Amino acid sequence: MGKKLTTRSEDYSKWYNELVVKADLAENSAVRGCMVIKPYGYAIWEKMQGELDRMFKETGHQNAYFPLFVPKSLFEAEEKNAEGFAKECAVVTHYRLKNNPDEPGKLMVDPEAKLDEELVVRPTSEAIIWNTYKNWVQSYRDLPILINQWANVVRWEMRTRLFLRTAEFLWQEGHTAHATKQEALDEAMQMNDIYATFAEEFMAIPVVKGSKTENERFAGAEETYCIEALMQDGKALQAGTSHFLGQNFAKAFDVKFASKEGGLEHVWATSWGVSTRLMGALIMTHSDDNGLVLPPNLAPIQVVIVPIYKSEDQLAQISEVANKLTSDLRAKGISVKYDDRDTQKPGWKFAQYELQGVPVRLAIGPKDVEKGTVELARRDLLSKEFVNQDEVVEKVSALMTEMQDSLFEKAKSFRDSHVTEVDSFDEFKKVLKEKGGFISAHWDGSPETENKIKELTKATIRCIPFNQEKEEGSCVLTGKPSSQRVLFAKAY
Amino acid sequence: MGKKLTTRSEDYSKWYNELVVKADLAENSAVRGCMVIKPYGYAIWEKMQGELDRMFKETGHQNAYFPLFVPKSLFEAEEKNAEGFAKECAVVTHYRLKNNPDEPGKLMVDPEAKLDEELVVRPTSEAIIWNTYKNWVQSYRDLPILINQWANVVRWEMRTRLFLRTAEFLWQEGHTAHATKQEALDEAMQMNDIYATFAEEFMAIPVVKGSKTENERFAGAEETYCIEALMQDGKALQAGTSHFLGQNFAKAFDVKFASKEGGLEHVWATSWGVSTRLMGALIMTHSDDNGLVLPPNLAPIQVVIVPIYKSEDQLAQISEVANKLTSDLRAKGISVKYDDRDTQKPGWKFAQYELQGVPVRLAIGPKDVEKGTVELARRDLLSKEFVNQDEVVEKVSALMTEMQDSLFEKAKSFRDSHVTEVDSFDEFKKVLKEKGGFISAHWDGSPETENKIKELTKATIRCIPFNQEKEEGSCVLTGKPSSQRVLFAKAY
After folding, report:
1. Among A101, A298, B56, B433, which residue's Cβ finds the most Cβ atoms within 10 Å?
2. Aminoacyl-transfer RNA synthetases class-II family profile domain: from which residue to which, for each copy (chains A, B) (predicted)?
3. B273: left (phi > 0), else alpha (psi -120 to 50), else beta?
4. What is the ipTM of this complex?
């Protein structure tokens, strides 16, 4: 266990890094920028995958798998996309190692096994997928194509942090093909909505839905929709994006279809993705100085039962109660772990499960056996109470919903109190410095102004929110006219 | 749909390749040796994953994720493992592309972005994982570690075939660490047994369990257990392997633990895996000249309902029956697709689902509505019968089990009739040439003899079966004494 976590007020960034490692979520590996996702962290990711996968399938999408490698000639076909990713991509140039004659026992790249064409390890799969779709689409009858892929991708980022920015990460990427522009726009919007629903209902993270500005758009997209969340330190985090790609990839890869009307048209595209970065958002939305706090809907272990005993005899009696509770709770669909290991003391277990964010802890001692009670501790409030054994199942079932809702409400009220409307650049800087959060301000619509503001404050436009009334105003930096406010923030 | 499949007797290999593509399972991609797994093929793989994952978790394993890349210095640490995989590995040498000044719009590797140390794209993950376990293990209390990973791996094979041998493939790889040799041996055996159970109960493929000879062992293993299946063309296919790695990786990566007794000892290891290669085994065990045949336990669509109609009115009446059947069957946990698309004719649909191996097809026409019947077609026997609508659910439920069993029995009787005991090398060659299958023969136990037989016949020792009585005899090639028969075959 080691010593306590650095507190959030001491050093938020250090708190985060320590928490990820100490709660057994992930750790750095021997490969620069690549992480090891440990079993407990991966179990949370599996819960996320399960829910998202269900939502994708319910909306008609199917999973498939495309190659890890993108030949350079395909990679460069869509110019903007290539430009956006070329600067940070891992490139395979050889297909063999051989013994190094100068250093026995060591290997070296075999210069005779140089590939004719370099292969880029996919940073995203539009190129390889649209090169495939080309052969799948002849007529409008072949459309839409609604495919998702669960995969690893690599972006050679220079500064990395566990989950938030890693050279390799896991994600899902949807790639759809449509006969009309409107259908593609609707699809991109639908998937952004699914991400928002998932974030709010499962991760208990309130998000703002909106569009990205041209500067912040995905390389190769005509429109990027997104969901933006706010972390406890006042920085924003882009939690998911959904892109309307227009006909850019269809043109780059010559994907045309015979329309109902008899014409030959380029196909319309979308792509959309969320990644293991969501793990970072989950941690930074709910956790506290004692460790991880997990919403019940994503907790791999929802309830842990810890026996407190001095003799084998006591343990046997406690186990009887614990085993009954375990099976009754499981019958309600609640995941339970009964930790009767004798290698660790109860205090150690309490601290460990607190650190790992298990929503409910039940402790049972000899007195509880006598009295027919258990001690129930709630992770989010760090509160404790005694509950009659015959009321535990009902109480815990209700708590699953209550804690899920309460975490969301708490995060929402924090977020809502950290959206500040400002009307001058001085105020902008003051709020950003003293309070952080989202700053709702007028902007003249030009990339230059956005860049200038970024240069001066490090804040970027997180999104142009969808659900926001038009309002005449003037740009917070240039004073030029503006018809609506946008959300600025410093971001992860 | 295109024209009919090549038949198996005409050209088995061509039949296989055509089937994989026409049944929409997979296709070749723009990357040499890498495949695209199409949605229908991927759905079968997902069913396999689901069952295996459940079996792994039920035996105490957890999933995790380790980096895609292995730094060269780690890759070469376990000498035999490195030697086994160095000849066919993809190597990342650079982390950036830049604009090619000589060819506008084209990119080139940026020579200034050369990695200090080359990264091997994992062909298997022992090296990166044992380098990680090193930090996880101090004491016997940290053991066992029971971890599985679902991942993509790359082996730069020169001759590739869809599913059977591809440069990139999907698999799971279990990597466990133990305090004692016996515990590791038991784990390796347990996982081989799980693979056998999965193959027989879900894939309906009978397998022989056994050990590999030294020649055929995994690079770096002290013992390799395996399950061997027999394909319809008389060639064997290694369907899963489980390795006892001894202390080889613990020594290479210096992984020691403080034992209960107070000593400091090297950890014992296993690894085990199955891959998308299983898709090839599934196809080649059950399918026929009309296309894929799927065991119900792995069929993404177990029942398809096709309406046969001339008017909208008829369709409405048929749909009423079909929708009721669909929901009744689904209530029994059976997956059903009602294909009422008007873009394709019934005949086209019949052929398509036959090609794709959907176990049961129900066809409903106006006469069936009148008479209260449906036409039920069984994919494995290509048989048809009329069934009363109120008996369909019961009938189909029973068929799911019946077809599963019947496919297994059919494959088993084929396999059993293709295990031939031979006692001379002439007989060996004759049987291999005229009949194929497994040849059960005495072998003197030397790698040289095994190599010589391979050279002369292309047959290798598939395994030394576990469940086989000892029998004194003499080697089929050298005449030297042998204490048990082993199984030879030509293999995929």
Report:
1. A298
2. 27-295
3. beta
4. 0.97
Q: What CATH number was assigned to the domain covering residues A301-399?
A: 3.40.50.800
- Considering only CB atoms, A36 lies closest to which of B132, B152, B156, namely B132
Cis omega (within 30 of 0) for bond into B144: yes
Pairwise CB contact (< 8 Å): A120 & B141? no
Tell me the fold of B419-489.
Answer: Translation Initiation Factor IF3 (3.30.110)
Outline which parts of chain B fall under CATH 3.30.930.10.
12-71+128-286
Chains A and B form CB pairs within 8 A to the count of 191
Residue B57 to residue A416: CA distance in whole angstroms: 41
CA-wise closest residue to A150 among A170, A169, A135, A122: A170
Crossing angle of helices A277-286 and A392-416, rounded to 10°: 100
A4, two tokens = 């306590």
* Beta-carbon separation of A170 and B119 below 8 A: no
Residue type, A458: K
Architecture in CATH of B12-71+128-286: 2-Layer Sandwich (3.30)
Distance from CA of A376 to the nearest CA of B (A): 27
Chain A residues within 8 A of B154 when measuring between CB atoms: 68
Per-residue pLDDT of chain A (492 residues; tens, 9 = 90+): 556 899 999 999 999 999 999 999 999 999 999 999 999 999 999 999 999 999 999 999 999 999 999 999 999 999 999 999 999 999 999 999 999 999 998 999 999 999 999 999 999 999 999 999 999 999 999 999 999 999 999 999 989 999 999 999 999 999 999 999 999 999 999 999 999 999 999 999 999 999 999 999 999 999 999 999 999 999 999 999 999 999 999 999 999 999 999 999 999 999 999 999 999 999 999 999 999 999 999 999 999 999 999 999 999 999 999 999 999 999 999 999 999 999 899 999 999 999 999 999 999 999 999 999 999 999 999 999 999 999 999 999 999 999 999 999 999 999 999 999 999 999 999 999 999 999 999 999 999 999 999 999 999 999 999 988 889 999 999 999 999 999 999 999
Of all residues in chain B, the one with the smallest CA distance to A121 is B92
> Across the interface, which of B71, B93, B97 has its CB nearest the CB of A94?
B93
What is the homologous superfamily of the domain A12-68+130-286 according to CATH?
Bira Bifunctional Protein; Domain 2 (3.30.930.10)
Q: Answer yes or no: do B63 and A72 touch at CB < 8 A.
A: no
Contact B98 A105 (CB under 8 A): no
